[in-house]
Design brief:
Length: 209
Amino acid sequence: MSHQPPSPAEGNLLFPVFLKIDLLQILLVGGGYVGLEKLQALLKNNPNAKITLVGKTIRPEIRQLAALHPSVWLLEKGFDPDDLHGIDILILATDSRQTNACIRALAKQQGILTNVADTPELCDFYLGSTVKKGDLKIGISTNGKSPTFAKRFRELLEEGIPDEVDLLLHNLQQLRSTLHGDFQEKVKLLNAYTASLVAQAAPKPDEVP
Ligand SMILES: C[C@@]1(CC(=O)O)c2cc3[nH]c(cc4nc(cc5[nH]c(cc(n2)[C@H]1CCC(=O)O)[C@@](C)(CC(=O)O)[C@@H]5CCC(=O)O)C(CC(=O)O)=C4CCC(=O)O)c(CCC(=O)O)c3CC(=O)O
Ligand SMILES: NC(=O)C1=CN([C@@H]2O[C@H](COP(=O)(O)OP(=O)(O)OC[C@H]3O[C@@H](n4cnc5c(N)ncnc54)[C@H](O)[C@@H]3O)[C@@H](O)[C@H]2O)C=CC1
């Protein structure tokens, strides 16, 4: 059976961006297991992420983690619409779909980008699995199909990509800073210097004699 390549308008249409979460104010609502997971994910990517967590109850693991991060504020209380004031990004992780949907509707009116952990249809964005090797970061998305696949694929990449890749990035940055001349010239030179990185890759089918 021949495999038809998907058209550009099919499959994963999400647009990845890499956010400076130490400059943006994040509100996380829900102090349970999922609240903890999302807090861990944010802090793993940036220990200085600016996060306010509001929860009627707050798990002790969240308290322990927050105690290590001065940029995290915990408020043990029910959500209040005023909590949205000054918020750039919202993550909803309460155990009530209805509560999540109500808060999401309020946020939408205010143009706040929102993730609703239990309802992909209501999300403006999804969290992804991330691999970090120094300055290199890779985001993984399965379009909401299988978070477990994303997690396993992250583990594979974490093991498979050598830590030395960061040194390579550092050297390329040094080289980049020595280059002068016009944009086209720089692109040409940098492509020439890095050609060996892809030289070992398998030839494309149409390149096979
Ligand atoms: C749509 C999305 C919205 C969002 O949360 O942003 C979403 C939704 C849901 N997740 C559910 C379950 C699980 N989520 C995880 C784990 C992760 N989930 C993450 C992202 C996302 N999860 C977004 C899509 C990402 C994508 O496109 O792939 C990761 C990648 C990032 C992160 O959260 O940090 C992180 C792995 C991080 C890592 O380790 O690298 C595990 C595994 C585990 O915990 O071990 C399980 C259980 C096993 C399973 O279901 O696979 C359920 C069902 C809840 C229920 O059944 O009640 C829903 C709701 C639904 O699907 O309806
Ligand atoms: N996206 C994802 O990765 C996953 C999503 N989920 C979904 O996430 C949801 C939450 O699951 P858990 O964290 O395990 O539940 P949980 O019961 O451990 O935590 C729920 C938290 O929400 C708080 N809460 C409830 N109403 C509130 C309100 N009005 N204001 C402030 N806080 C409020 C509770 O006090 C508690 O801290 C479930 O609906 C589950 O289906 C579950 C697993 C993974």
